[in-house]
Amino acid sequence: MSYLETFDSLTYEKEVYKPSKETVKNSYVDNYDRLYEYSIKENEKFWDEIAKQLNWFRHYDKVLDASDPPFYKWFTGGKTNIVYNALDRHVTTFRKNKLALIWEGEDGCERVYTYFSLYKEVNKFANVLKSFGVKKGDTVTIYLPNIPEIAISMLACAKIGAIHSVVYAGFSAFALRDRISDAQSKLLITADGAYRGGKVIELKKIADEALTKTPVVQTVIVVRRTGKEVAIDTSRDFYYDELMKLPIANTYLKTEEMDSEDPLFILYTSGTTGKPKGILHVHGGYSVGTYITSKYVFNINDNDTYWCAADPGWITGHSYIIYGPLINGATTVMVEGSPYYPYPDRWWKIVEKHGVNIFYTSPTAIRGIMRFGENWPNRHNLSSLKILGSVGEPINPEVWRWYHKHIGKERCPIMDTWWQTESGMFLITPVPSLPLKPGSCGKPFFGIDADIFDESGKSVEAGKGGYLVIKKPWPAMMRTIYKDEDRYKKTYFSKFNDVYLAGDAAKRDKDGYFYVMGRIDDVIKVSGYRLGTAEIESAIITHEAVAESAVIGKPHDIKGNSIKAFVVLKPNIEKSDTLMDDIRSNVGKTLGPIAKPDEIEFVDSLPKTRSGKIMRRVLKARDIGIDEGDISTIEED
Ligand code: WTA
User: Fold this and answer.
1) Residue of the nearest CA to atom 6 in ligand 1?
2) What is the pLDDT of residue 13?
3) Per residue in 194-243, pLDDT tens?
4) Which of 165, 260, 440, 563 has the most Cβ atoms closer than 10 angstroms to its Cβ?
5) pLDDT tens digit string along 322-336?
6) How far apart are CA 624 and CA 604, in angstroms?
7) Residue 509, exposed/middle/buried by CB under 10 A (0-12, 13-18, 19+)?
8) Hey, which of 6, 390, 391 would you mutate to test ligand 1's pocket, going by the most ligand atoms within 8 Å of its Cβ?
9) Are the C-beta atoms of 399 and 407 separated by less than 8 Å?
10) Closest Cα to atom 10, ligand 1: which residue?
11) How far apart are CA 496 and CA 513, in angstroms?
């Protein structure tokens, strides 16, 4: 049975894992129901109490300004900076010499930063950025692998009020170019290369290719990671390490006082159209949301070592490798490279080496690791682990059980956190003291008013599927799509007037546990990565032999979904396996290796509506052999 089918029946909803007395005793939240009820009834008061736990240059006047929905504002009148809470406030306490960041490279090298040393590196690099003329409100694009300089760059931008736009280092030159152009960044931070699975990815070369078509970039800062020779344009490119040695790279800089609603970052994510959406987050609300979710869900204590095995290039890395843990004063672990290289026990070796207490990853990674059997984790002492986490896609119950048994040794609760780039923070998730059900992401986080609607906007009864929606705003929600307020309104708030539409289908059981079943729009989660069918189709048709294409996601046992492309060739083009391979590698070059179709089928035509819209759902239904349904109602023009 493929993993999506396991969601068809909720027979496993009766399987409940109760937390141990010790877990409940040691939890920040020992009674979910009581706090949840309060957080909804007294919503603003709840958020006010949380926000007061952070430092503000100037205290806010108002918790929520809902005068112009869906453009909500939080903590208005307040002055803060996420760096003020993530670094500055710690260096005057006992945390000054505590480890902030432990980094492991794929080649075995290790670097550690205390709060004070990270603070100084950030100050130095912020001074460097300023010396290049980067000011408050400017955008900076960051195209870096999973190395400490990505955290330093993001924090340095935030410190001076610049808006960072991180582009995942697995994206191609074209994807990078589009994101630079949309953000209009004058400065790009990249590296000579990155290590992944024993191979070197030549990031600088990809960046150079992107820059041939983006004249807006005036300065490129290059971090030396692999040490391999790269082309340097002396009028534009500077080495990071050389800049950091200059007198200008002073170890002190005052943190810019930002309005709560000032932008912190843009992160591009896939949607229904080919153009990625620049999701915009702000300093105030995002700080509050990532702080409290990290604290309550992972129960981070001062003596904990916390590891989120995501890439900083995606929202999980932004919120839960960097900002959330640092605001909590935690020790956060960052690991470069593949979980299987050189051997499939790499991660467990790292858990043992650093005594990791909290470990957070994706179902795809667990499924990938499961393939190699439990002997690999069993070779290591995993007794430091207390809490596990999962994110990015639904975790099928059998994978949940394996993770619970072989990694958590039936001791560690699994926090299956449901959220999105747009939400900035967890929205539906257990807390450690909540009984767990495998395959369920638990219940809404405090202050989050989640529901499941039918087509007409009515709440559905337990056991019925529907649209997952959020009925109240929350502090860390995106503020808009960069330079596209209409798209923001239309995509998220138009189907059900002023209610946030997440784009996922979900069910709830009679105990109020949520089960997210997957996307209902044209987004596919492949190995937890978010891709748009339209983006992949655009990449396919850049191939000269292709006339048209349609892409669907197919259930896949390891990746969650695989990509299948239906391709119509131009007249008189011969179908062949070589052409297929060529189309695949062209997608790799155009969008990035993660977007390469697993399967290509040449077809003579594509099913379309009368107005010419491709009916992907019909293709999908035919492909996996299910009823095509009432096409006229599903595919409206
Ligand atoms: C999916 C990733 C089921 C979902 C943080 C959502 C999940 C999309 C879960 C957002 C989960 C994320 N269970 N599905 N625990 N977490 N998703 O923006 O479809 O990359 O809408 O953010 O991932 O993907 P994004």
Assistant:
1) 420
2) 75
3) 999 889 999 999 999 999 988 899 999 999 999 999 999 999 999 999 99
4) 440
5) 999 999 999 999 999
6) 19
7) middle
8) 391
9) no
10) 420
11) 23
Give the chain's mean pLDDT: 94
pLDDT given at position 636: 36
Name the band, by pLDDT with cuts 50, 70 and 90, for residue 3. very low
Interval between CA 52 and ligand 1 midpoint (Å): 29
The amino acid at residue 212 is: T
Q: In the numeric block, which tokens belong to residue 530?
A: 């978010």
| Mean predicted confidence (pLDDT) in 275-299 | 97
The residues near 164 (Cβ < 8 Å, ≥ 6 apart) are: 139, 140, 141, 142, 153, 154, 157, 158, 264, 265, 266
Specify the pLDDT at position 634. 39
Residue 213 to residue 393: CA distance in whole angstroms: 35
Residue 338's nearest CA partner among 200, 227, 144, 226 is 200
Both tokens assigned to 159: 């410190």
Model pLDDT, residue 213: 82
Count H helices and E strands in the chain, helices first: 21, 32
pLDDT reported for residue 628: 62
Task: With a cut of 70, say whether residue 443 has pLDDT above it.
Answer: yes
Tens of pLDDT, residues 507-533: 999 999 999 999 988 899 999 999 999
CA 504 / ligand 1 centre spacing (Å) = 9
| Peptide bond before residue 342 is cis, with ω within 30 degrees of 0 | yes
Is 97 buried (19+), middle (13-18) or exposed (0-12) by CB count in 10 A? exposed
Which residue ranges have their beta carbon within 6 Å of ligand 1? 269, 314-316, 391-394, 416-421, 441, 502-504, 516, 518-519, 525, 530
Q: Which strand (E) or helix (H) includes residue 281?
A: strand 277-282
- For atom 20 of ligand 1, the residue with the nearest CA is 530
Query: Whose Cα sits closest to atom 14 in ligand 1?
Result: 393
Let me know: does 225 contact 192? Beta carbons within 8 Å.
Answer: yes
| pTM (two decimals) | 0.94
Percent of the chain with pLDDT over 70: 96
Task: For residue 224, report the distance from its CA to the centre of ligand 1, in Å.
Answer: 33
Q: Which atom of ligand 1 is nearest to the CA of 417?
A: 15
- Ligand 1 pocket, mutate which of 280, 420, 529 (most atoms under 8 A from CB): 420
Question: Given ligand 1 and candidates 467, 525, 559, 561, which is best to mutate, with the most ligand atoms within 8 Å of its CB?
Answer: 525
At 551, the amino acid letter reads: V
For residue 287, is pLDDT > 70?
A: yes
Instruction: Band the pLDDT of 610: cuts 50, 70, 90.
Output: confident
pLDDT at 269 over 70: yes
Instruction: Decide: 480 and 488 in contact? Cβ < 8 Å.
Output: yes
CA of 176 to the centre of ligand 1 (A): 23
Residue 633 has pLDDT above 90, yes or no: no
Which pairs count as long-range contacts for 40-43, CB under 8 Å and 24+ apart, including other chains?
40/447, 40/449, 40/472, 43/447, 43/449, 43/472
| 609: confidence class by pLDDT, cuts 50, 70, 90 | confident
Contacts of residue 486, Cβ cutoff 8 Å, sequence gap at least 6: none
Best CA proximity match to 438, nearest among 411, 408, 404: 404
Joined tokens for residue 362: 């994706």
User: What number does the ligand 1 atom closest to the CA of 502 have?
Assistant: 21
**Residues 6 or more apart from 230 whose CB is under 8 A from it?**
192, 193, 202, 204, 205, 222
